Amino acid sequence: xxxxxxxxxxxxxxxxxxxxxxxxxxxxxxxxxxxxxxxxxxxxxxxxxxxxxxxxxxxxxxxxxxxxxxxxxxxxxxxxxxxxxxxxxxxxxxxxxxxxxxxxxxxxxxxxxxxxxxxxxxxxxxxxxxxxxxxxxxxxxxxxxxxxxxxxxxx
Length: 155
Known about the structure:
Layout: H1 4-12, H2 19-65, H3 69-86, E1 95-100, E2 113-123, H4 129-132, E3 137-147
Antiparallel strand pairs: 1-2, 2-3
Helix pairs in contact: 2-3
Protein name: Pilus assembly protein
Keywords: Membrane, Transmembrane, Transmembrane helix
Organism: Nocardioides yefusunii
């Protein structure tokens, strides 16, 4: 015969064999999903930042190599869009701003400095509308300054 206290102790306990695996899987999923989303978002923003920076540099170079300002602005816009497309960012918005130290109409004159600003943004992956509000874009901006004559040959 067994003592009464041992019987009561055995009946009061639950069998917990195998529950550690279930708990590990659930905790792993709860932690793994946000970490993967954060990593994907960081990679997307970094890729967009590289594309925006490359677009600003290329647009500045294209601007100062043009024969006149009207052509320069068209070339800068076209080159910036082409760079974004080549980086795999066809859907990125593009706003191009050109500022000149010598003022409008004198951008392509000696001692002038041209500053190109590219504003864009990337959409964060898998972001629910509940969390994003109206937009899920991450704004990006790149600036590049080119002195006139840097990419021209001396005559």
